[in-house]
Amino acid sequence: MSPMKFATWNINSLTVRLPQVLDWLAANPVDVLALQELKMTDDKFPHAAFQAAGYESVCFGQKTYNGVALISRAPAHDIVRNIPGFSDDMARVISGTFPLDFGAPTGDVQSTIRVVGAYFPNGQEPGSDKFEYKLAWLQGLRSWLRTELVKHPNLVLMGDYNITFDDADVWDPEGMRDQIHCTDEERYELNALIAVGLADAHRLFPQAPKSYSWWDYRDFGFKRNRGMRIDHILLSQALQAQAKACWIDKTPRRNERPSDHAPVVLELT
DNA sequence: ATGACGGAAGTTTTCCGA
Predict the structure, then answer these.
(1) Which of residues 153-212 of A touch strand B (CB under 7 A)?
(2) pLDDT 10s digits, A131-169
(3) How far is the CA of A249 from the C1' of B6 (A)?
(4) pLDDT tens, residue by residue, A178-208
(5) I want to staple A238 with a disulfide (CB 3.0 to 4.6 A). Which of A68, A119, A153, A219 is the partner?
(6) Which domain holds residue A80?
(7) What share of chain A is helix, strand, coil (3-state, %, to 5)?
(8) How many domains does chain A have?
(9) CA–C1' A132–B13 (A)
(10) What is the mean pLDDT of residues A49-74?
């Protein structure tokens, strides 16, 4: 019955950020870490470096853009890349099944948890082709998750959603009104995911106001806390009673050459 | 301020992210 930790982090190039990821894992041992924006092909993925740190890894890479991975203590099973039923030439989703140390009240049955790590499309600008792709992708994800949740009652969907829930997730709600990450269409889709049977882990707990997971590199965005909360961990209803804490770890954003995103961490007990 | 900052590609400048 040991507590378990799950985390998600958009690292904006694993080539650049690998040392920071290894440092963070050493200070923050987790059961599963979902990475987004690897920006590398699978043949370049540093499996050996993670292995040396005590972690298994599975990746779904792509040249230049996108790319996702799951770093884990236990090996992943039933690995699926991208969204079944939704045709996509970008590497955005990787799923795996992991042992779950609690589950049956008697404690002698080991159940499993399905972990979906995702890099949601950016969408660029409302009305653009990329925005339409984002909405279609979101519908494809939701349709697939509906069946996935039936197969896997214990499920975590975590990653860079590129969507804010509401104004509390935005440093300048007026300035960002109807802008990308903040449109009604995107928020409708995010809430539709919730309606499928998921909960925003961050808001299951009291949080400091102006808690963000991303800050623009430009104009001292981090220093001025001009950010948005767009990285999320959603958990299925079966897991909600096990959730113990959820936080955004701003520490790595203070590194030299940081990612523009901070990790989000979930603790289950 | 159709800007800034940062990464990738790849070659001096563009695309893209959020």
Answers:
(1) 160, 162, 180-181
(2) 999 999 999 999 999 999 999 999 999 999 999 999 999
(3) 21
(4) 999 999 999 999 999 999 999 999 999 999 9
(5) A153
(6) 4-268
(7) 30, 30, 40
(8) 1
(9) 29
(10) 97
